[in-house]
Design a protein that fits this description.
Blueprint lengths: L7 E7 L12 E5 L6 H9 L17 E6 L3 E5 L10 H17 L3 E6 L1
Parallel strand pairs: 2-4, 2-5
Antiparallel strand pairs: 1-3, 3-4
Length: 114
Amino acid sequence: MKVNLNKAEFVRSAAKPADFPKDQLPQVVFAGRSNVGKSSVINRLLNRKNFARVGSAPGKTTHINYFLIDSRLYLIDLPGYGYAKVSMKERERWGRLIEAWFADTQLMTLGILI
């Protein structure tokens, strides 16, 4: 599938499973430890400096972020796992959200562990 990476748009941040898009587009997910560079990889792929928000402290990505590419597929930025300066309750929420995403999706075309 050929896609135009210049046609990228932020679609939504999913805070709960009900927020996940319901369309049937392929999904490329970026997963990894906190502060490993998942958002930075998305920015590099799209050749945009601050498209996916990046922070110097672990835990900047707190929701599942969906970026629509060329109206044909999603790049998905997951919250990191491991160390982050957030409460245990917030880390547990992230864990439940990520587990729900993996349990719900049948459209993951590619998973990239960074």
